[in-house]
Design a protein that fits this description.
Elements (H helix, E strand, L loop, with lengths): L13 H17 L10 E6 L5 H12 L3 E5 L13 H8 L5 E6 L4 H8 L4 E6 L5 H15 L6 E5 L6 H10 L5 E5 L8 H9 L4 E4 L2 H5 L4 E4 L10 H7 L18 E3 L20 H19 L5
Parallel strand pairs: 1-2, 1-3, 3-4, 5-6, 5-8, 6-7, 8-9
The structure holds phosphoric acid mono(formamide)ester.
The site of phosphoric acid mono(formamide)ester (CP) has 9 residues, from helix 2.
């Protein structure tokens, strides 16, 4: 692969995606752990909280023999003194070989990539994109269903601010699956993205009725209502707890439907669902290490 950075899934074609997933699967099958990235340093710059993305990036780098630097809270870096993103990247690029950045502002990862001469990976920028999450989501679907085409995939919850669903919908445009967007009217997918999906020939529809939609789904991708993205808490209170999946709610689901979630969850999936065959979300999160190992090796030119 000839890409320098991974900022958006929009920069990836169908073959690129399938290639990344095949590299990840080789790593997974071999249970690889070794010195492929010995001497390389990953900087994780997290301007927003994270558990899975940061720790799985760091675990991936360590499993490949590399080392890590970075911050998980901008308050303990010179960002707290007012240093710009541009200046931070100009400095950090001289301390490491590759950067993973999470930032609350849409477009921050693109700015970092334009600034840096080393590879930059977007670990989530505002409500925009979360491409490494999408690749692990696709890998999870492929492992569970054996294909990415010909599926009915429901995405449910905060579709307005949810970067994971924005990225996933963009990526699924390369595959002949149907997308069902399930949300309250206040949290629907951005109109512009829906127009683009239509132009690309993607079959999609919207509904607020999770119970009705669930009957036909192969995958139900739940998301959290993200309190931190709301400027007005009155608006948040209107949609808080709008979808809650428990065992009773799953009565109408197909037996082979699988539930995914980028996590963290709040109340949208009851813990009693965890023990059912529907639950795929913890398996999904585990794939984060494999996918990020593949991306680190590819972007650092150790696998071609
Ligand atoms: N899925 C995800 O991005 O989780 P974290 O916020 O914990 O990294």
């Amino acid at each position: 692969m000839m890409m320098k950075d991974l900022i958006s899934v929009r920069g990836l074609g169908r073959e690129d995606i399938l290639y990344i997933l095949s590299v990840a699967d080789r790593i997974h099958t071999a249970n690889y752990s070794g010195d492929l990235l010995k001497g390389k340093i990953l900087a994780t710059l997290f301007y927003e909280p994270s558990t899975r993305t940061r720790l799985s990036f760091e675990s991936a780098m360590m499993r490949l023999g590399g080392r890590i630097i970075g911050f998980s809270d901008p308050k303990v870096s010179s960002v707290a003194k007012g240093e710009s993103l541009y200046d931070t990247i100009k400095m950090v690029e001289s301390y490491c070989d590759i950067i993973a950045i999470r930032h609350p502002a849409d477009g921050a990862a693109a700015l970092a990539a334009e600034t840096a001469h080393i590879p930059v990976m977007n670990a989530g920028d505002g409500a925009n994109q979360h491409p490494t999450q999408t690749l692990l989501d696709l890998y999870t679907i492929l492992k569970a269903k054996g294909r990415l085409d010909g599926l009915k995939i429901g995405m449910c919850g905060d579709l307005k601010y949810g970067r994971t669903v924005h990225s996933l919908a963009d990526a699924m445009a390369h595959f002949r699956s149907e997308l069902i967007f399930i949300s309250p009217p206040e949290l629907q997918m951005p109109r512009e993205q829906l127009r683009e999906l239509t132009q690309k020939g993607v079959k999609w529809r919207e509904t607020a009725d999770l119970q009705k939609a669930m009957k036909e789904l192969d995958i139900l991708y739940m998301t959290r209502i993200q309190k931190e993205r709301f400027a007005d808490m009155v608006e948040y209170e209107k949609v808080r707890g709008c979808y809650i999946l428990d065992k009773a709610a799953l009565q109408s689901a197909r037996k082979d439907m699988r539930i995914m979630h980028p996590l963290p969850r709040v109340d949208e999936i009851h813990p009693e669902v965890d023990e059912t065959p529907f639950a795929l979300y913890f398996e999904q999160a585990k794939h984060g290490v494999t996918i990020r190992m593949a991306l680190l090796a590819l972007l650092l030119g150790k696998i071609r």
